Amino acid sequence: MNTKFGGMSKRGVDCSGFVYLTYRSKFGIDLPRTTDLQSSVGKKIARNNLQAGDLVFFKTGFFRKHVGIYVEDRKFMHASASRGVMVSSLDEEYWADSYWMAKRIYM
Questions:
Q1: CATH number for domain 8-104, candidates 3.90.1720.10, 3.40.50.300, 1.10.10.10, 1.10.620.20
Q2: Of the four listed, 23, 51, 78, 97, which is most buried by Cβ atoms within 10 Å?
Q3: 93 given a catalytic annotation
Q4: Given 3, 13, 14, 15, which residue is catalytic?
Q5: Residue among 14, 55, 66, 76 flagged as catalytic
Q6: Active-site residue 74, yes or no?
Q7: Is 91 an annotated catalytic residue?
């Protein structure tokens, strides 16, 4: 899958679209469509209490936010603007510096 801002298909998906489609297809849960709205649902949790399926949020610019789904071992899946859907580490300098918060969506 390639990244496409506002995209929601296999031809291109943005980070919040990836989260939206994944939660819908894997868990049957309809989340809000945008990163801002996704950050307003669920229960805020500490970074050291992350579990698979938790949403991890980042502030990547003055007005830009990014979201991914925590997998395990300090790794998360997300749609990257440059490399499509991928797995990254929370310990990578870029993600560690831009980490904002995490939310747990109860199923």
A1: 3.90.1720.10
A2: 78
A3: no
A4: 15
A5: 66
A6: no
A7: no
